[in-house]
């Protein structure tokens, strides 16, 4: 099971406000797991699954809605880079581990970052309904979907109210659709789907 140990280490340094923590990680090479000329991969400080990484573009991009078609090559690079990294670290086909790469529609942290997260959700840092819903509902926008929307429409519009509503929705197992009474029950139930 993933723990929050990394998080307590990162939060000990308090030079920037918490929502700028990723900018801080970007400028601290000791946090970089790997990088190329366009982006950097770090460990998520409060992993919501056994394997949870963040890909950060080197260039400062405020958020999803500031992206335009000229950023598509960068978004593609971030996705390709994450796949190469997963193959390098976990083996061919990521050692059989199921990952999703994507973005939270309404992120809490400043600066664009792409989540790369295994689909076990086996972590003590995944503590509440908001966490669960942010990775298992449409609030989580697949990187390929983001790229194709920007390619088609030139930019991405986010209806904040709609997406924030998804976080407040019921606790549902996204595999079978069964609603669960609380998070521990849901996590136990979810494990029964062979994770
Ligand atoms: P979001 O802004 O909702 O897309 O998610 C931000 C992610 O950043 C969360 O998964 C947090 O666990 C993670 N996080 C928050 N602060 C830090 C930090 N200082 N270093 C690394 N990861 C962090
Ligand atoms: Zn289920």
Structure description:
The protein is an alpha+beta fold. The chain is 35% helix and 15% strand. The protein has a six-stranded antiparallel sheet. Helix 3 (72-90) packs antiparallel against helix 5. The chain is globular and about 45 Å long. Zinc ion (ZN) is lined by residues 173, 175-176, 178, 189, 193.
Helix content: 25-40%
Judging from the principal axes of the Cα atoms, what is the shape?
globular
Strand content: 5-15%
> How many alpha or pi helices?
7
Unreliable stretches covering 5 or more consecutive residues? none
Q: Any idea what the radius of gyration is?
A: 16 Å
Q: Please describe the biggest sheet, giving its number of strands, its sense, and whether it closes into a barrel.
A: 6 strands, antiparallel
Average pLDDT, rounded to a whole number, is 93
In short, what is this structure?
The chain is α+β, with helices and mostly antiparallel strands and 195 residues long.
Task: Set out the fold topology.
Layout (H helix, E strand, L loop, with lengths): L4 H7 L9 H6 L5 E4 L3 E5 L8 E6 L14 H19 L8 E6 L9 E5 L10 H8 L3 E3 H11 L6 H8 L15 H9 L4
Antiparallel strand pairs: 1-2, 2-3, 3-5, 4-5, 4-6
The structure holds adenosine monophosphate (AMP) and zinc ion.
Adenosine monophosphate (AMP) binds next to helix 2.
